[in-house]
Design brief:
By secondary structure, this protein is of the alpha/beta class. The chain has two domains: 235 residues, Rossmann fold (3-Layer(aba) Sandwich), CATH 3.40.50; 62 residues, Orthogonal Bundle (Histone, subunit A), CATH 1.10.20. The protein contains 13 helices and six strands. It has a six-stranded parallel sheet with strand order 3-2-4-1-5-6, with helices on both faces. It is globular and about 55 Å long.
Amino acid sequence: MRPRVLAVTGATTSGKTDLSLELAHQLGAEIVSMDSRQVYRGMDIGTDKIGRSERRGVPHFGLDLVDPDERFSAGRFARAARGWIEEIESRGHIPLFVGGTGFFLRALLEPIFREPEMDPEALKQLREVLGDFPLEWLTRAVRRLDPVRAPVAIPGGRQRMTRTVEVPLLTGRPLSWWHEHAPQDGPAVPALVVWVELDRDELDRRIDARVARMVEAGLLDEVQGLLDAGYGPDAPGMTGTGYREMVAVLQGRMKLADGLERMRLQTRQYARRQITWFRHQLPDDVLRVDGSLPLDSKVEQVMAAWTERRSE
């Protein structure tokens, strides 16, 4: 189908931001972030969130949407994104989605099930209770309440296991049942997907440089401020790489040098998982762009593909 949006994705530090900003200027586009960590307010340095002064006059959506103690699902992103697309198109501009959260992209291209409605107050109370239980208990609860989803939920950690437990307790049906039987949460959005690729050595070099830049920019102070504001290490936003490690440093459970090394290692592993996901989940007609090329060459390649696809 003729693409309605342009989506630029790739592993962390692959150069998506600079490419997207130049494309936005040349296409007359507005940018929508596809980053599951940049939705959190007050979490700027550790998520490498683009600052207002760096946006070069390009409107951005999908940033600073929720507090660190809130969950933000792929389905919620897709519902919000459809509204942003309508708004951007009403101004005669092109929606340009940018980010490395694959599940956000897939929820846009292949809508997932409509999430069941749950009483907000009951959900809040249940999450407070579940937050006090050890992971061993949650693991047993997941296996008992939703054995179909257990192989996915348990490796996903506390947040995913909690979600798998709370849905059957509040709806009477396991999350796996909702995945299979609930209707899709809106129509698919046709898109030209661009995958920015980099070789492993260059990715590792950029990751190391970014970790150093985050520390120099005040990552420790940012994390301390979040802790002082009452956001504990189990808050959904605080479970991301960089925040986990700096919490351990601030609480005296880890030396700074060890925390930074763990940040580098965890970020490299995350980049590997992103690449594996892209290889298996991106559409067959994805445009693969060499991230090591000069910026103008990458822009030219994407612009040519966009013009061709839009004219079909």
